[in-house]
Amino acid sequence: MIIGVPKEIKNHEYRVGMVPASVRELVNHGHQVFVETDAGMGIGFTNEDYVAAGAEILPTAADVFAKAEMIVKVKEPQAVERAMLREDQILFTYLHLAPDLPQTEDLVKSGAVCIAYETVTDSRGGLPLLAPMSEVAGRMSIQAGAQALEKSNHGRGMLLGGVPGVEPAKVVVIGGGMVGRSAAQMAVGLGADVVVLDRNIDVLRALDAQFGNKVKAIYSTADALEKHVLEADLVIGGVLIPGAAAPKLVTAEHIKAMKPGSAIVDVAIDQGGCIATSKATTHADPTYIVDDVVHYCVANMPGAVPRTSTFALNNATLPFIINLANKGYKKALLDDANFLKGLNVIKGKVTYKEVAEAFNMEYVDPRTAVENA
Questions:
Q1: Active site (annotated) includes residue 106
Q2: CA within 20 to 30 Å of 146's CA: 166, 184, 218, 338, which one?
Q3: Consecutive sets of 10 residues in the chain, 373 residues long: mean pLDDT of each?
Q4: Which of 96, 154, 254, 295 is catalytic?
Q5: Which of these, 291, 293, 366, 300, lies nearest to 42 by C-alpha position?
Q6: Which domains does the chain have, with CATH numbers?
Q7: Model-level pTM?
Q8: Which intervals hold domain Alanine dehydrogenase/pyridine nucleotide transhydrogenase NAD(H)-binding (predicted)?
């Protein structure tokens, strides 16, 4: 198969779909890889590094899209990239379609086979291709929140861990999944007063087993959420419903009642955000103020640490890329029910129920769609 790796073009996005070591693995399996010039420069890989791994360098994204049977990216394709997709071409990347009607419409129109990293599952119901970026984003959320609390950034002027004789900041993490656990780990390490809210008792037990009395694992009710959010100095939004728009758990009324100078980091912003006042921002302009609360809502947080993020992502995606290349998309998807859940759009049909429901589009069972493709 011919695999194409274009350079990412989203604002301040320096990750790349495949590192040279991944390219070498594909070439060793007998496949051909085209990489756009300077695609890996943001994480320190030169064109020569990719050539040494067996890739061929092409001057433009248009050249890559024109030649490749499968496009491997990191972030959702931007409008100019979507226009280059063609029927039967495989797109393997993060998509986050549920809050993004224009992208969904364009992918449907393209006729391409669009597989989303974030909806591929494993045998335990986990999200193996989302997990590494959730780990990065969860840990980064505490760094971003700590900066947002600084007075120069319009925050309360608090140090997360306090100092002897001064109380630490209260960090409230909404959602105890991979993002929430990673955020809690960082916040505990910095000495903050940490509360994690979740509705899954098993998740709360796991948090208690991992952190003991360093984290207050609280069952999330409307009362509990309101109480802890209003007491918080920093709120981390880490709620995820795979493939669907995130529920708005923190309301505009909550924001108005929060302490002036407190901060919010909405890690769920890729799926529309779980804070009512959230709107996507970029690394170039990451924060804004609503009712004296600092909001950090960068939609590609791991892009700020692209080298770490790219390697973590490639470790997870490479077996799936090889599988697609070796078998073709039909056999690869039909052989693995968990991988099949990654299929969001194929040849003009929406095959992920939550996306179809979000936009009142017709839903087609993914297995049926692949068998009839």
A1: no
A2: 218
A3: 97 95 98 98 98 98 98 97 97 95 97 97 93 95 98 97 97 97 98 98 97 97 98 96 88 98 96 95 96 96 94 97 98 98 97 96 97 93
A4: 96
A5: 300
A6: 2-119+306-371 (3.40.50.720), 131-299 (3.40.50.720)
A7: 0.87
A8: 149-297
